[in-house]
Amino acid sequence: MKDNFFYEDNKATIPSVDLQQNQEKTSFAFRTMQEIEANASGHVEVPHRHNYYTIIWAKEACGKHFIDYREYQIQPNKIFFVSPGQVHQVITHKNSTGDVIMFTREFLNRYYINEEFIYNLGLFADVPDTPPIIINEEGAKILESITQNIAKAMHENAPFKYERIGAYVKLFLLECNRYAIIPREDFPEFDQSGRSIVKTFKQLLEENFEHWHKVNDYAAKLNITPDYLNNVLKAAIGKSAKEYIQQRIILEAKRLGVHTSLSSKEIAFQLGFEDPSHFSRFYKNIEKESFSSFRNTLHSAS
């Protein structure tokens, strides 16, 4: 077993997984780490991305969790939050115990959990990422009660089953939020209007980062000045819009560099660089190493 992200030859895309329960597409699922290990039949999970939110609560577990090229130790009472689209890989030792809660954006909308609520919690990763949380014994008891209720509801066929589950998920997240690092809000720009701007900017970035590389592009779409956008983002995440855009492009370059066999030239074109040499300079200026060195390091480590 190799404790790193594998470079997968002959792959042109990163595996993307829809949420399923009993081999049918669903908007919510709850499983234990024990069930997942049994279903894996000893096979090591390959790096992949989900089209849904995932919460992994390691109760009595150890191993490693790789999320977008950052390595985290899996430890007792550590909880990981994986956002849709993030590339991750879980490697645990045998007999690990824990709970895994998975839900889609459709689930949030259908059962009255505003995605703005998810964004404001500061639990799920973004650019930059958000580290996992570690809960204390008191918190573990509270969460255990909630997950037991979720498990019980999943096996029932009672009226308003998923409305109840949605309420339990919200309670679970609120309890976890007590242990999260909340973004700074000490700038006057970071009011409710600022939150809306940050959310819309992030959505625009996800949709357009392969084509729009300049702050002006996003500011124009938001009908605000580039300076105002920078101030709002500085208040929310401590980084300028330019830095945020650059980080998103670099992240995608790494994803494609690790999980596909596309050439550097092909990756450059896919990320909106008309000249591959421009991409090379862009990557090296930010990461302080060449993109080819990054890929070579992956080969030597695997």
Biggest sheet strand line-up: 1-5-10-7-8
Number of helices: 12
The end-to-end span amounts to: 10 Å
CATH topology-level name of the largest domain? Jelly Rolls
What overall geometry do the principal axes of the alpha carbons give?
Answer: globular
Can you tell me about this structure?
A hairpin with a 2-residue loop joins strand 7 (63-67) and strand 8 (70-74). The termini are close together. Helix 6 crosses helix 8. The chain has helices at 33-40, 105-110, 115-121, 137-154, 161-177, 192-208, 215-222, 226-237, 241-259, 264-270, 276-287, 291-301, and strands at residues 16-17, 20-21, 24-25, 28-32, 48-50, 53-60, 63-67, 70-74, 78-82, 87-92, 97-103, 133-134. It is globular and about 55 Å long. It has two domains: 16-177, Sandwich (Jelly Rolls), CATH 2.60.120; 192-301, Homeodomain-like (Arc Repressor Mutant, subunit A, Orthogonal Bundle), CATH 1.10.10. It is built from twelve helices and twelve strands. A five-stranded mixed sheet has the order 1-5-10-7-8, with no helix packed on it. Strands 4-11-6-9-12 form a five-stranded antiparallel sheet. The chain has a two-stranded antiparallel ribbon with strand order 2-3. The chain is an alpha+beta fold and 302 residues long.
